[in-house]
Write a structure and sequence with these properties.
The protein has 17 helices and 25 strands. By secondary structure, the protein is an alpha+beta fold. Strand 17 and strand 18 form a beta hairpin.
């Protein structure tokens, strides 16, 4: 009770557990055995039995067995936490007027809500919705679509005023379409602050498509329960009859509204807007028409989503085409920084902006309308401190970066894309300031701290036109902008930078290999000449004639040449391990090389590794041929290899049989 009064008081109000329902229907909560454990205290006026007499009793004690069976058969269709089932024209008591029912699960309870059926001769709600959809599909543009949808819903429901209310990124809402009686003041184009619809109310709008308030002056019917259950904690999020927050009731009274209905408009599961229906006297809409209104709202949501997505797809397709050209060209770049900087103009074609800056290798490149180099450098430092490694966007730079106030006229909005794996390099798109006049329905930030609800927020009483000039903001960054930015980030990180770095590494590697080959050739020539000289000396000591000396020396040099070819004739390119083993086996076994079995994945060896491993395999094969499994005709050798989890090559040499 001692909390400070501010706009968050509404956000904390537990509107999903009001402990009461609107009196145009009644509620019963039953357990899994269909025993009644809770009910609204107006049950008696509908079923003739006081709710206190129904607690602990089976549902069949107050409604017919046929009705219980009808309800039970629909429970199995409740497939999720927000699922509801509707039944129309159910005769709860023999010979009595029928009811329309809504059933859903709330925790362990089955919630049954009922209201008297209203049958309107000649009204086919399904056909009405079909005709309504046909009419709105013929419209062009979002404004015409919203205006026609409001008109159609007003015809269906008969409310005095029907508005299409769209939410903005800052949480405020704007009336983008309206159909109202000629005697009523127009709300079209007015903006309402985010606090008018608290966060928990928005969450309910996402879960429960339709909300009706029949009469703001009606006395709610309290829920009562057995001692083992608590009606005050019953979650009525999916309820049809859920009673209304006292704060919201006062808000509606301050507007002069006596009844209201809202139908959610969702896009991608998020709240895009609402159909807001107002009536200036109490108004009840039959459950059948409310269901038709909800269906219309769902279909309208899909149409809005489809039309907005068409624009997004075209926008993203153009960006994708530019991105493909970047991928093709970037691979030929010698240096990663040029692969970024050279395409600044192309980036501007991908994401709608007024300027772009690239910070790479501690250097800045600018294109279009941007802050200065020093201002961009400071902004990059701020981004790397606060949002390293992720896309960061704001349409009001001074709100998140105080120093941005100095250049908001040139760059009021920015979108930053990291383009290195460490928080250093980035690409920043800028949008200039868009000064505009906003028409508020009353002063948006006014907080009233006195009212009938104690020390809590009292809803504002003034809805008179109040104009505000908004400066320091750019056009907001859309979800499509963010998706394009993410795609570009992946391209720059995974394609352009890798390809350009790889090309540079390959050129450096080729130069290093050439230098190594020259050094190796020089080294090997000296070694071969030294070895030939030693062979000449050794052969001279054992030879008894010139002919014998020539034969012995020639044979040794020929053997040396064969060994040298086997080990080093690689052309300095990776060579398959299987080729190495096969060549060594063939040299010793000839046609019997099949006695050496091999198995393993296709792996290639770097020339240095191949030269070393060739000596090892040569030694193993020699030992096996002289002393091991290959020394007679019975043995065999199995050579298998694999890559271990650390990507190291593991080779196993197994010998079987032999002497």
């Amino acid at each position: 009770m001692n909390e400070a009064v501010d706009l968050t008081n509404c956000d904390r109000e537990p509107i999903h557990i009001p402990g009461s329902v609107q009196p145009f229907g009644f509620l019963l909560a039953v357990l899994s055995d269909f025993t009644i454990c809770m009910g609204s205290n107006n049950v008696g006026s509908f079923l003739g039995t006081d709710v206190a007499d129904l607690l602990h009793q089976p549902l069949s004690s107050v409604v017919s067995a046929a009705a219980v069976e009808t309800i039970r058969s629909r429970v199995d269709h409740l497939g999720g936490p927000d699922a509801t089932e509707r039944l129309f024209g159910v005769e709860l008591q023999p010979g009595k007027p029928p009811f329309d029912l809504s059933i859903h699960l709330s925790g362990v309870y089955l919630i049954i809500e009922a209201e008297p059926s209203v049958r309107e001769p000649g009204v086919n709600s399904g056909e009405l919705v079909r005709l309504m959809l046909e009419r709105i599909r013929k419209t062009r543009g979002m404004a015409d679509l919203a205006r026609e949808a409001a008109r159609q819903l007003k015809v269906l429901t008969g409310f005095d005023r029907v508005m299409v209310y769209q939410f903005h990124p800052d949480g405020s809402g704007e009336v983008i379409a309206e159909t109202a009686g000629a005697e009523l003041e127009s709300f079209l184009g007015l903006r309402y602050p985010a606090s008018d619809i608290p966060r928990q109310a928005r969450a309910l709008y996402q879960r429960n498509w339709l909300r009706i308030i029949v009469d703001v002056n009606a006395r709610p019917a309290a829920l009562v329960s057995t001692v083992t259950h608590n009606a005050g904690l019953l979650d009525l999020s999916m309820s049809v009859l859920r009673s209304v927050s006292p704060i919201h009731i006062e808000y509606l009274r301050n507007m002069g509204v006596a009844a209201s209905m809202s139908v959610s408009i969702l896009r991608d599961g998020k709240l895009w807007g609402l159909f807001a229906c107002h009536h200036y006297s109490s108004r009840y809409i039959s459950f059948d028409k409310r269901t038709a209104s909800e269906l219309f709202g769902q279909m309208f949501s899909w149409i809005v989503e489809g039309r907005e997505r068409e624009g997004d797809v075209a926008y993203e397709s153009r960006a994708h085409q530019v991105q493909e050209r970047l991928i093709e060209i970037a691979a030929s770049h010698e240096h990663s920084r040029r692969a970024i900087v050279d395409f600044l103009g192309d980036y501007r074609k991908m994401i709608e902006c007024d300027g772009v800056a690239a910070w790479s290798d501690n250097k800045i490149a600018l294109d279009g309308e941007t802050p200065t180099e020093d201002e961009v450098k400071d902004l990059v430092a701020f981004i790397n401190r606060t949002s390293p490694g992720r896309i960061f966007a704001s349409a009001e730079i001074a709100k998140v970066y105080a120093a941005g106030q100095a250049f908001r006229d040139r760059a009021a909005g920015f979108l930053a894309i990291p383009i290195s794996r460490t928080p250093r390099d980035c690409l920043i798109f800028f949008r200039r300031e868009v000064t505009r006049s906003v028409k508020w329905a009353g002063v948006p930030n006014k907080v009233y701290d006195e009212g009938p609800n104690g020390p809590r927020l009292t809803p504002r009483k003034s809805f008179e036109l109040w104009q505000e000039t908004v400066a320091g903001q750019s056009k907001p960054w859309s979800a499509a902008d963010i998706r394009i930015a993410e795609s570009l980030r992946v391209t720059l990180l995974e394609v352009i930078l890798q390809l350009s770095d790889l090309a540079a590494r390959e050129r450096r590697g080729a130069q290093q290999r050439q230098e190594l080959m020259i050094a190796e050739l020089n080294h090997r020539v000296r070694n071969i000449l030294s070895l030939v000289r030693a062979l000449v000396a050794q052969s001279k000591d054992t030879a008894t004639s010139v002919e014998e000396f020539a034969g012995v020396l020639g044979g040794r040099i020929q053997a040396l040449a064969r060994a040298h070819d086997q080990i080093t004739n690689l052309n300095w390119a990776p060579v398959a391990l299987r080729t190495l083993v096969e060549s060594e086996a063939g040299a010793y076994l000839g046609a019997r090389a099949g006695r050496v079995k091999m198995g393993g994945p296709d792996v290639a060896l770097d020339p240095k590794a191949f030269a070393t491993l060739a000596l090892v395999v040569h030694e193993m094969m020699t030992n096996s041929a002289k002393y091991g499994a290959l020394a007679d005709s019975t043995g065999s050798v199995e050579v298998v290899w694999r890559l271990d989890p650390s990507s190291s090559l593991v080779i196993e040499w197994k010998e079987s049989g032999g002497p």
